[in-house]
Amino acid sequence: MIRLHHIRKVFNQGKPSEFTAINGIDLRIDVGKITVLKGPSGSGKTTLLSLIGCMARPTSGRIFLQDREITSLPERFLTTIRRSTFGFMFQQFNLIKGLTVLENVMLPAYPTDSGYSELKHRALHLLETFSLSHKSSAKIEWLSGGEAQRVTIARALVNEPSILIADEPTAHLDTKLSKTFMEIMTRLNQEGTSILIASHDPMVFAHEAIDRIIEMRDGKMVPTGAAA
């Protein structure tokens, strides 16, 4: 379970450009589910994902992960939690050009205690799972859009996270690839991975596998039943 208590995130605090991205959110997210943050650009979805995934700290409020407060933990502990608990997929794939597919998948796990042989085996298994074994030695820039996305998913899973966070994952995909993405997410969820997606794409939030939709606007949650 992830629980957010009175979360606010203010950028450029005390300056003329001060901006409140998240404004007093209370939220509980259950594990084992596919949850979607729905809302237009600027609604605060990405900021909220970064707070939940320990990539940023709230200006005020508290965040609990499995009943453990993580908001005030030192950075080194947050880094450990981030690597061991969360896998990340970004709107831009953020794959490293010049590196091979295998090297890109292995990259997030290098700071961990995993030995090279174990890490390589894990990465190759993921590539096989996503039908990319034959591309393991290919440079990232040689891939199609669908192949690049599957590499991104494999990279997000290499540390065997319990929670997968995806920020606008279908923003640059056509309808066919968006459907494929949701099929993969459904399968991962059935295998036990909790999934949190930020999206304004109907292909995502209208999918039958979605357990919960949280609508956001202007840094706040839209009350259930309120007009969009």
List keywords for this structure.
six-stranded mixed β-sheet; four-stranded antiparallel β-sheet; globular; 7 helices; Rossmann fold; 228 residues; single chain; alpha/beta
Would you mind describing this structure in some detail?
With 228 residues, the chain is of the alpha/beta class. It has a single domain, classed as P-loop containing nucleotide triphosphate hydrolases (Rossmann fold, 3-Layer(aba) Sandwich). It has helices at residues 45-52, 75-85, 101-106, 116-129, 145-157, 175-190, 202-205; strands at residues 2-11, 19-29, 34-38, 60-65, 68-69, 86-89, 163-167, 194-199, 212-217, 220-221. A 6-stranded mixed beta sheet has the order 6-7-8-3-9-10, sandwiched between helices. The longest helix has 16 residues, at 175-190.
In a nutshell, what does this entry contain?
The chain has 228 residues and is of the alpha/beta class. It has helices at 45-52, 75-85, 101-106, 116-129, 145-157, 175-190, 202-205; strands at residues 2-11, 19-29, 34-38, 60-65, 68-69, 86-89, 163-167, 194-199, 212-217, 220-221.
Strand order of the largest sheet: 6-7-8-3-9-10
Rounded radius of gyration (Å): 18 Å
Which CATH class? Answer: Alpha Beta
What is the second-level CATH architecture? Answer: 3-Layer(aba) Sandwich
Note the run of SSEs as H and E: EEEHEEHEHHHEHEHEE
Low-confidence runs of at least 5 consecutive residues: none
